[in-house]
Amino acid sequence: MLHLGSIRGTTIDVDANFLILVALFVVLNYRADLGIQYALLWIPILFLSVLIHELAHAAMIGIFGFGSSQVVLTGMGGVTYNRRRAKPWQDMLISLAGPFSSFGLAYLCLRIAFAVPAVHSDAFLSAFLPYMFLANKWWGMFNLIPVAPLDGGHAVREFFGIFLRDRIAFVAYVWVAMIAGGAIAVWFFLTRSFFIAFYIAWFVYMAFEQWRHFRRYGTPGD
After folding, report:
1. Residues 174 and 196 in one domain
2. Cα–Cα distance, 133 to 106 (Å, whole number)
3. Residues near 100 by Cβ (< 8 Å), separated by ≥ 6?
4. Domain boundary pick from 104, 119, 144
5. pLDDT category, 221, cuts 50, 70, 90?
6. 101 with 40: CB under 8 angstroms?
7. Which end of the chain is more exposed for a tag (fewer CB within 10 A), N or C?
8. pTM value?
9. Are residue 80 and residue 91 in the same domain, yes or no?
10. What φ, ψ does residue 5 adopt, rounded to 5°?
11. For the segment 146-163, what is each residue's pLDDT rounded down to a tens digit?
């Protein structure tokens, strides 16, 4: 674990698996005709995108008065740790803060690309901003898929928790996760995005195992 520092009490650490993820993106995006420099753009893109996404979670946690957090960049993206006793609506907003910060960053990149003419004459920015826009647009959308551990799954469960008892909220969430998550996994499979389809299918399987645990023991298998 590499410790990078802290921002207003929230610590930032990088797991070795995140470095593997970054290396994988560089290798997969390398093209001999473009050169290694364009593939290396994914190093700052991934680092900034995931870090800002997680810091948005931490910022919302701080706004609600739950203190500082620990942000860890991992091979799955990132995780924000914080021990809190939040109400469901607070946890829902904390979960949604990450994806919407990604959309905000994507929009900012788009605005800069159109509003600053100098961008188009700069080789680095003319390549960096489109990649940054696409990365954050898709990262935000991916995280809104309604199956845990993605932010969308947590947000759906907490949304039901606002109106329903915890057990019923869990049942409602897990069925949304299995049906919607399963359909999205199939869609990615049919569009030949096999890696993403596998990831989502695995999350759906985890939701199914939680449901089996609930049926057997009467408590959510978190």
Report:
1. yes
2. 4
3. 56, 140
4. 144
5. low
6. no
7. N
8. 0.92
9. yes
10. 140, -155
11. 999 999 999 999 999 999
